[in-house]
């Protein structure tokens, strides 16, 4: 398998059997189809998830296999912006659960969902919870991307209001898929608390209580932060460090 | 309403109409029925949620009404311990969604779910997401308890491995319901990483990747941390500060 | 356990294990959040259910444990009146089924749901039916309150049109929670067939065919019967006799 | 339409439009496929439901139309006996709801489900409840058969333990479909309380608390009562009186 | 059983047990309640399904038993025409799956659904697929009617645009239920491509891509083809040949 | 957009808005993750679906946009072979429906699902049916691949038993993704009826009655037909002709 990419969809049935019996960790890239401001594509989250799965697989050179990407996630907060398509959390959960249990039925026991989209996090947690109840022996883990390296982002220095399409996310795209970023169209979104409405400022002021708002209540162009301050360099730091940490996790997991 | 407790279930239909038209915030206490170690009762999370809702209502003296408690939550990770009863995340989400939409149908527009149980958090987030898609004008927020005051807990100093039934939670119970804590039976649970299995240590070593384990894989007695080091004093700090912050949130919210 | 109230949520995990292995009957109080006329609170049905469970437990002094109350039921017929919140029958059934099966998984084998709200009866029956198919060995029973003592009510003499918030229900509240009844606001509802519309008279004239109407089609103030004719005395007769009969049932059941 | 039977399935689309605009009441016969002892067929409940719908239609000679029969109902309590097939209450409810709403969409506003099987009653009630919430203007009623004439049955005198396949039900079949009754095979089932197990006696001793048992816990041959004491005469009284009462209900309903 | 019709609903429980242990094939007639043009009844598909099941059973004289008819199917494409009632595909699938699994639970292992309505085909296929995954040993087959004998229809010569209520279907009804066909009202529907709208012509021009249209987009009177060219003779050929082929299938199946 | 590939996930939100208002047809590639014999990869159906969508888009040079691929389909018949992962038809239908309605909500009105996997066909039909009922104005079409060109396959001459992984499918892969075909491992599967079991021969002998079998009942290596007789040439004919026909359909559709 060394020369062939570890895409599950590229394996034959017999190779899949080998992967499962070898104890490979299955990575499932998860994304979203949602607005990413004026400059970035709808599939930004999917692209980043697939990219980091490929990097992880390349770094580990063995021991992982990459399942097909689930490219549509949970994005109701972006529906006011064109192009955004969402699944309900119920349907997204059903798909993830059936894919995870399907892989388990074929013999894999360690499965790691890798989501490029934070909106998928809560549903992934609910799937993990339900699986603990129904399949107590299955090992299902999941990870976001940027949130794996909050220290790298903090060190870089970002806008006071920062998030979707901001410095951190745009930088990643400049590193992994620069041809898909329309830098000429990039423009800052909401970057300072005083640009927010009272309600939005309240919602952003605390972790808890948690008050979810629609993105059109947070930013006119769908951007939080300043994509014009992004750089491929910062993107490289984020992606590389996240890759390191995910690889480290997998290595330790596989050894147990 | 000043003399009567602001329990929605204690209001007449006419009083409920007034509360809704007055713009009251509805608090929904959410708990769990799950093991809480040798010394604390199964309803610990429910008791703490109800207690803080009462404190918030008392402090604000008006402007909030407390919906009936939903006493069973999402607890599959505790099922190996006697007495634990869980809902699936699908059913828990359905109940919360129908209650929130039912309140909205009767005229309330700001609803804050208050959960004493962290296992409910992810499902509450998925409900909030789905409501953003289906009812973009409804304002639904939710909050945990201890996680509102991480600074207070950190300042107090707790075990290296700390969490369920640990110093922070036991202290709260010693403050709000000491008669339900069997201090004579309290004993430390897992308190140091070296007491954990390799898998449990891995799971606890990172925020992300997130690997959920059953509690019987984390602790023999269902406890993370040292309840014998708990104190009503620390409980008072946690509860009082959390009450302050939730009241502050509601005050700002109600003013918008 | 003699000194401590037999609330499941107040037991520790170990005490719950003992309760299950001792063969305790689990009582589940079920209520509603719905209009109860000008004088009674929205939670009237929940309050009465919790009260009778406590009386049953006190009378039997052992052998029963009380699960957390499920305070929202099936009340679509009252939705035109403020404050009423309902679950769909599907969601109500799901909650009851998961709670009953969750208790069964933890070792209890006899479970008695006690509903203060007649609107829950049909769904409880469907849950019992489905459980007969899926778990033929589990023993699940349920009971209403007032309908346990139709003879007591008949003997007392009530309005020709009588039911929700009428003499029987108001009397119970005057006995068990008089501080929550606003007697000054009590007023008769529909009490005679000639006050009903033709459709309502038809619907009330037969047990079968059964034609369900909304309560705003039956009564202007949501009341059927005359709450001003209620008395704590009648309430005591109803509650005490119902307690007797439910205790008798449990005693016989536990002995088999 | 006078010469043609008022079966909806026999009408053309144009005739259906006329029926709806004329304000016809739609009857939906509901049955079951379940054991009916040694002498009666699995479809007994369906046969009786279809028969009474035809009688009602004949008697009224206009103003009603009969929808297709739904021949499988809720029968989990009979599953231990060969031939019994049940739907879950969820699926049965979904079918009834979609059929009722489908008829309503085509213009009918009064719909009466006629069930030959008591096991369907609770689910029909839940459908009626949910429709009150979602379609407050639709008029949906339902009726059982034997329970419409409890006085006739009481007057006839039946076994102390009486019910499924007993004197009342067998008599109806002897009247409406004698060729399907194997009188030579008829034999008494459980007829006296002292033949019941303690648990079964408890379950039968009260209306409430309600404890549902499987039929194989109640009777060795699936019969409650004595079918050998049945007569076509009693069947005629039951069926004719029930027809009268249902016709009376429809006549009054149609006039409102 | 030779003298009695092989209707499952007419068998006693004991006879059902014999049928299952004898290895009978169970036929399930499936129909629809939908517009069939000016001349044919809403239940046309149900009538034809029941008819052919009876013919198959008569021909084979043993070895099959006929389950109760499911008379409402999947007909959303006809909803613009009065009288049409449809189930969602989800509910139709649930009913079929529960009936099939219910029969299997009672011992039958070969089940053949016979649908008179082509709109049911896709859902039957999805049920068969899901059963392959969940019950790999159960044998579930299904069959349409007219599509079993495309050669007979082709030989007869039909309109260029032909289908619902056309020569083939009307002929069958003239053969099996002539008293339900209002020949005086029969009139051609859409019979030539040039009568179709551009969209409808596109939709009819290819098997794939498949573009489903509503019937009111295809034909003003709900008819495709010319029912006035139908004949009982052609109906006899279609029905008899289809009966032959289904019998042949069952005979071979039963012998394996 | 001329230089950029018409992948929806590569468009910005503003470009998506333009695509929708321009009236673009959205293509949704649908595949499967299932065994494809000894020589072809698990993702064969997905690969072919994505390939033909790209060809169609390239040929039309405008007027279409390609949604993200849904890479897991309905494959329960292949579960006995390693690597196969399936969704239930219910979940697959939910995903397709939510994606189609999500695209519709964002302004697209013509949507064409392109499935490389025949096992998805029935569920796609059910989705189309339900959408006709709930969204009568939406235009949703779907197409398989090989079944668009049955004449090309027939002309080529294939094994008597032919299908999954046979000459036609393998040829397509040799044309579109030869680097993923392990020709050295290719071997004939079941190619003649006399190699089939009696049951399999029966199942394959008729279109209707339709009897679905598991693939391990049809072929030891999961192959029907002879992949060693495949050729890139035949693949080119199949793919090119299918592309032509789908483009022709879209061109006509877009012009209406």
From TrEMBL, chains A, B, C, D, E, F:
Highest taxon listed in the record's lineage: Bacteria
A Pfam family: Creatininase
Family annotation (InterPro entries): Creatininase-like_sf, Creatininase/forma_Hydrolase
CC cofactor: Zn(2+)
Alphabetic keyword roster: Hydrolase, Metal-binding, Zinc
Family to which this protein belongs: Belongs to the creatininase superfamily.
Name assigned to this protein: Creatininase
The organism of origin for this protein: Mobilicoccus caccae
């Amino acid at each position: 398998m060394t020369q062939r990419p570890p895409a599950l969809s590229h394996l034959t049935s017999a190779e899949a059997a080998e992967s499962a019996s070898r104890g490979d960790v299955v990575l499932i890239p998860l994304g979203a189809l949602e607005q990413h401001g004026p400059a970035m594509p709808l599939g930004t989250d999917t692209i980043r998830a697939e990219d980091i799965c490929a990097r992880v697989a390349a770094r580990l050179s063995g021991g992982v296999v990459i399942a097909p990407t689930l490219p549509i996630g949970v994005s109701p907060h972006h529906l006011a912006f064109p192009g955004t398509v969402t699944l309900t959390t119920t349907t997204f959960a059903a798909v993830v659960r059936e894919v995870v249990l399907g892989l388990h039925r074929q013999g894999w026991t360690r499965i790691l969902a890798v989501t490029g989209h934070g909106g998928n996090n809560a549903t992934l947690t609910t799937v993990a919870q339900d699986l603990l109840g129904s399949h107590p022996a299955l090992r299902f883990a999941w990870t976001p991307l940027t949130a794996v390296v909050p220290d790298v982002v903090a060190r870089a220095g970002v806008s006071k209001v920062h998030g979707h399409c901001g410095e951190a996310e745009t930088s990643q795209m400049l590193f992994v898929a620069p041809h898909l970023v329309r830098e000429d169209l990039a423009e800052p979104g909401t970057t300072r608390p005083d640009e927010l409405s009272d309600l939005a400022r309240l919602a952003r002021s605390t972790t808890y209580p948690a008050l979810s708002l629609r993105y059109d209540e947070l930013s006119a162009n769908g951007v939080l932060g300043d994509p014009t301050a992004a750089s491929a360099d910062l993107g490289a730091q984020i992606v590389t460090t996240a890759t390191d940490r995910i690889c480290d996790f997998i290595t330790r997991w596989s050894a147990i």
